[in-house]
Amino acid sequence: MDKIQLKALAKINLGLDVLRRREDGYHEVKMIMQTINLYDELEIRKVKQPGIQVKTNLYYLPTNENNLVYKAAKLLMEEFRIRDGICIQLQKKIPVAAGMAGGSSDGAAVLWGINQMYGLGLSRRGLMERGVKLGADVPYCVLRGTALAEGIGEKLRTLPSMPKCYLLIAKPGISVSTRFVYENLHANDLRPEQHPDVDAMIEALEKKDLALLGSRMGNVLEEVTIPAHPVIREIKNCMMEAGALGAMMSGSGPTVFGIFENQARARKAFRAVKSARLAGQVYLTVPYNVHRS
After folding, report:
1. What's the rounded Cα separation, in Å, for the pair 129 and 121?
2. FRET partner for 208 with CA separation of 20 to 30 A, picked from 43, 102, 145, 161?
3. pLDDT tens digit sequence for 36-77
4. 219 vs 253: CA distance, rounded Å
């Protein structure tokens, strides 16, 4: 196999709780992750020139070891002593630095692609174990679907698939520093009522109750991000007024998503967010659910 084409899918957090700050500086989390049908496109191909080349459609993205696709390729190529030169063409469509794990998903796709191209024989679990060396979200991006993430995000358990629905994704034209959000959360001082009820969200998934899921969604990081960037609350309110069953910030932000039971309401909300000029990037999509035997 001299070439492989891949899709790296984005994720949203249906629920995100931070339980405590650990002594090593990392945070213990409890999150429900959901893959969505919004994706970057990658092509990996063998080339004569030795080494790893990365090309992308966005001029400001690094194409060296500061890019997760480069790191992912290097990790497997060094472990399995692959001497070929490869070129990775990355077409970014997932909003960058948006709380949607775009970079992690790109890295996960490269791990999967090189495993296939070279017949390395690594299982999904084997790829996930290597992925955690690249970042806490990478193992989930290998797994995909609906999952509970605990620990620092690397302990994963598959959950019942999200019910059929429509998702409105809106990223305002601001940047949010994940480090700033976590450093200002003061997780150990949060009151009980500030923590979202992730177990109730899992129950809603088990019951396939979309309305219940929407009503129980919560993201503790909004406690920090929304006061710093009020436009996030404006987008949430706009989606709710247009008929969303629930609207929430994904990850550390600034992307906001809304859940809709039918396409008509989702389209109405799409028009409302666009006309209010609250977000520069707005997408209408659906959950991506993995069916495994």
Report:
1. 14
2. 102
3. 999 999 999 999 999 999 999 999 999 999 999 999 999 999
4. 10
Contact (CB, 8 A) for 32 and 56: no
CA–CA distance, 164 with 262 (Å, rounded to integer) = 9
Q: CA 128 to CA 106: how far, in whole Å?
A: 14
- Name the nearest CA neighbour of 282 among 266, 262, 261: 266
Among 17, 40, 106, 137, the active-site one is 137
The question of whether 137 is a catalytic residue gets the answer: yes
- What one-letter code names the amino acid at 137? D
Taking the C-alpha atoms of residue 56 and residue 62, their distance in angstroms, rounded to an integer, is 9
Task: Give the chain's length.
Answer: 293
Could you say which of 11, 71, 236, 268 is catalytic? 11
Contact 131, 105 (CB under 8 A): no
Strands 166-171 and 155-158: unpaired
Token pair 């709710």: residue: 240
SS3 86: strand
CA dist., res. 162 & res. 34, Å (int):
8
For the chain, the average pLDDT equals 94
Please state, in angstroms and rounded to a whole number, the distance separating the CA atoms of residues 197 and 220.
10
Per-residue tokens: 185:
């959360």
Residue 24's closest CA among 173, 184, 150, 151? 151
